[in-house]
Amino acid sequence: MRTQQTHTYIFSSRNTLTTSILTERTNFSLVEIMGLSLHLFRFHQLTLRGFPALPTACSAAYTVPSIPDTRSKSAKIQSSIKLYLKRIHNYESMIETEREDFERGRKYLAQIMGEDPSTFNQEKIDQSITYLFPSGLFSPKARPKLKPPEEIFPKEKELQCDSAGRPLHSLFYTRYPHFYSVMNEAAYQLEALKEDWDTIYINKSQNPLKNRKDLVLVTTEWFTKAQLEEAIGESVLDEQVGSSVCLLHDFIFQYDQWLVLMNRIVSHPLAHSAEKFIFQYRARQIQVVDAEKYPDPELDPVTQQKFITSYGQKRRCFAEVCVRIPGTGVVDIDGKNLLEAFPLMGNREQIMFPLHVTGTLGKVDIKAKLSGEGTSSPANAVRLAISRCLASLLPDQQGRQRLLVSGLLTQDDRFAERKKPGQKKARKKPIWKAR
Q1: Number of domains forming the structure of the chain
Q2: Mind listing the pLDDT tens digit for each residue in 281-334?
Q3: Is 358 within 8 Å of 398 (Cβ atoms)?
Q4: Is the pTM of this model over 0.70?
């Protein structure tokens, strides 16, 4: 009877530890030696590429026995709480150390730039870093920066379980409790609006659209994915979840679902009842910096009216307009009223459009002087001049912001294209005939 000896060989590569128990015999055949060499070569190549080590047939028969955890449930919970408190303590210590380093670097940078450290804010820090370390790197994340540690390091999550180990949040096991809390609240708001609408319709006590209050959403927009994640303190999915070959329900786009639900609330006739909830998740639009400076209005000592004079141009038509507030709605254009100066309805609507947008229809007096010929061009020139006057007279939220969003403060610099020789008009070609 042949004796057999058992040896254990341990191979480790890239944190991959595999134990293979091989049986060494006194006589190996050539086929067995070649097979073993090929197996070890493949194992070495796979571990170098980052794949987990493949278990052998012998290692499956010999498993390392696991040590059972004999601690009680309360002991496990106490251990978890201690580990959490230790992690929080380490995080706070790290943040405090980084904060001291940031303040030291901020003061030193202020001395380099010749600034007062007490007034050296984050905006000046960014300008100094850009000046001292000019970088041509395309990605902003790769450029040098000096920011507070709270903006660099992710915030540590708070303890989500009580002393007994039970989750504090009712949606803890959904993996995204804060996101689904927002979704549930939005669904409750939508159902409440539907219930109010049904009650009014059944009772027929009043017309729900009579005193309807429209939501002003032109200056705000919905949170982006990053803003929503920052607001709820949780990551939001916007990509495919699961394997590459999956069914339709495996595609989860949480951000798109949230947008659809919020838009349904906004489109409801009674959306003004949920105005407070809606504006929790809307951010002010980033407007393009208006390079044009509007003068301050003057005060008439006789009538005690504020007035401002501005100019407008469209093609070869020029308009000089003076707007006074408060007024009675008088419109004087070269000594004529609006109907005499502009017989066409479309031109009169163009002139009155800025007043309708800002809610000053019938509340201001307008006096205009025109030069140039045409029908629509003089009306557009007067409209531009009136818009510029209202941007100076009214508050920013009521005047300039609404006029900017409506495009009434943008001058139209287009001119008619010249006629080309051999063509009927600037672009129109004559009808082509074969013969």
Answers
A1: 4
A2: 998 876 544 456 778 888 888 888 899 999 999 988 999 999 999 888 899 999
A3: yes
A4: no
